[in-house]
TrEMBL record:
Domain GINS subunit: 49-145
Record lineage: Eukaryota, Metazoa, Spiralia, Lophotrochozoa, Mollusca
Self-association and partners: Component of the GINS complex.
Short name of one Pfam family: Sld5
One of the GO biological process terms: mitotic DNA replication initiation
Recorded GO CC terms: GINS complex
Entry's localization field: Nucleus
Protein name in UniProt: DNA replication complex GINS protein PSF3
Family: Belongs to the GINS3/PSF3 family.
Translocase in keyword set: no
Purpose of the protein: The GINS complex plays an essential role in the initiation of DNA replication.
Keyword list, A-Z: DNA replication, Nucleus
Nucleus in keyword set: yes
InterPro entries assigned: GINS_A, GINS_bundle-like_dom_sf, GINS_Psf3, GINS_Psf3_sf
Length: 169
């Protein structure tokens, strides 16, 4: 087969059966599809029972960025693999998100002029997006409340529609 090049630590021409390698998700998914089951895939460490128990104990203190900057995204994509414990993983992801969401929302609404780098350093990409969206909405609301926001104007779509309507009359 000449696939030994996939294992840079080996000088062998072929990969020996039972060899464990790390592949990117897209490649593992292609090699472990229902049509061609070339490889078997293990559940990544952050989604195994030990980590799920830590999440159940107190998910709000876990550094998800350290476990993987795309923790939720990868966790959702794991359903493409035939893991026996995928339902437990899905429940753990949902429970973790629910516990952490409240903390993220509270922090985004109460830290407008503060340094948030220590908080956001522990968030995964989805959580960072939610945090920054909440922070922006608070900032926009306060600007509106203190009348620092720009005057309300028609959207571009409405202006174009009115212009077309005038031209047709």
């Amino acid at each position: 087969m000449n696939n030994g090049f996939l294992d840079p630590s080996s000088d062998e021409k072929d990969i020996k059966p039972g060899t464990k390698l790390e592949f990117p998700f897209w490649l593992a998914q292609a090699l472990c599809s229902q049509k061609r089951h070339i490889i078997s895939v293990e559940l990544p460490k952050p989604y195994r029972i030990g980590y799920r128990e830590v999440m159940m104990a107190d998910a709000s203190v876990v550094n998800l960025h350290k476990l993987g900057p795309y923790f939720y995204d990868l966790g959702c994509k794991l359903r493409y693999f035939p893991f026996t414990e995928i339902d437990d993983v899905a429940k753990s992801l949902l429970d973790t998100f629910q516990v952490r969401f409240r903390k993220i929302l509270d922090a985004s609404q109460s830290s407008l002029n503060e340094d948030t780098s220590s908080l956001t350093a522990t968030l995964d990409s989805t959580e960072k997006f939610l945090f920054h969206t909440g922070l922006k909405s608070l900032n926009d609301f306060q600007s509106w409340e203190t009348r620092r926001a720009e005057k309300l104007t028609s959207s571009e779509m409405v202006r174009v529609y009115r212009k077309r309507k005038r031209e047709n009359d």
